[in-house]
Amino acid sequence: MEWLSLDLQLFAGEKTEKATPKKRQESRKKGQVAKSADVNTAFLLIFIFLLLLFIGGFMRDKMIDIFTHSFQEYLLINVTVESVHRLFLEILSEVAIVVGPIMLIAIVAGVAANLMQIGFLFSIESIQMKLNKIDPIQGFKRIYSIRAIVEMLKSILKIIFVGAVTFTVIWLQLEEILLLSQMSVGSALVFLGKLTIQMGLSAAFALLFLSVLDYLYQKYDHEKNIKMSKQDIKDEYKKSEGDPLIKSKIKQKQREMAMQRMMQEVPKADVVITNPTHYAIALKYDEDKMDAPYVVAKGVDFVAQKIKELAKENSIATVENRPLARALYSQTEIGDAVPEEFFKAVAEILAFVYRLKQKV
Fold first, then answer.
1. Which pTM was predicted?
2. How far apart are CA 352 and CA 105, in angstroms?
3. What dihedral angle (degrees, nearest 10) is formed by the CA atoms of 298, 300, 301, 303?
4. pLDDT in tens, 191-233
5. 279 near 329, Cβ under 8 Å?
């Protein structure tokens, strides 16, 4: 029996269940999400090379203007503090026009890639200083782990695949490459620029294809890491909903308080209708509060006995009417008015009680 209980405990602790929404939310707050860095790289390369494809001519002309001004005008300027300062600002503004679009498109690509994968998320948990990050034993485990082997295989696959694609582009353009020595400098630079863009876009789309596979793997690995055991789910339920033992005690206390309030209303009743042993219904008629008699207390068995005892102690009339007591107990709650079909029977009982009080 001991080994059976041990097996059950191990099974309960095994992470076999999918993560709950609360667990997913907590992991997301810590920055633990399914994300592939290759997607960011692929988007960055695609955006930048497409930019070069569309505005490459403008950037070329701008760079030629910078060199032209440098050799024809800037070299002839007298060197002073003011001239150097003005020259620096002019060159900086011209270079910013060339480099600025590349920086801007790189930022847009990075933001777009992250939003596509994980949406908007701000978390500093992953960059916080933790001593276990510099623990050599933990570092050794990370280096020689299954995940490290998988990452190494992925890197080898990326190098082979992207290298094969770029080599194919070069191979298809091999005849033109061999004729570069016979081209003018301008024509050769134009050809090399086009070839670079072709290679860049081909490599970027090849990397994008691999990044989709990598993202699917990262999502699978993330789901595996955040899996929960049956005990984890039970503990989470206890934390969110409260310990069942504590909840039962709270409910018991609430019932006791409700019972106490109900018993305090019994001395104010006009009559108690009984079964005579199992049911007891205390009624009161107050024309200022309600048009019909209403229930101030009710109970069965032990509670019915307590109601009758309180009624006796406070000289409240007790009338035995079995069918009426059962019907009122099943069809009314505390504070409810007596149903219309029982008006006649209740009115007769109250009239009888009032006559008794007048005689006394």
1. 0.55
2. 93
3. -30
4. 888 888 899 899 999 988 988 888 888 888 878 888 887 777 7
5. yes
pLDDT in tens, 258-270: 677 777 777 777 7
DSSP state, residue 73:
T
The pair of structure tokens assigned to 136 is 């050599």
Q: Which pLDDT does position 8 carry in this prediction?
A: 40
Q: Where are the beta strands (DSSP E) in the chain?
A: 15-17, 228-229, 271-274, 279-284, 294-300, 317-320
The two three-digit tokens of residue 54, written as one number:
């569309």
Residue 244: other Cβ atoms inside 10 A = 10
Q: What is the pLDDT of residues 112-132, one digit of tens each?
A: 888 888 777 766 666 666 666
The tens digit of pLDDT for each residue in 225-259 reads 888 877 777 777 766 655 566 667 777 777 777 67
- Torsion on CA atoms 252, 256, 257, 259, rounded to nearest 10: 130
DSSP for 207-275 reads HHHHHHHHHHHHHHHHHHHT-EEHHHHHHHHHHHH--HHHHHHHHHHHHHHHHHHHHHHGGG-SEEEE-
Rounded Cα distance between 238 and 278, Å, is: 38
Identity (one letter) of the amino acid at 310? L
**Alpha carbons 180 and 188: distance in angstroms, whole number:** 6
CB atoms within 10 A of CB 66: 17
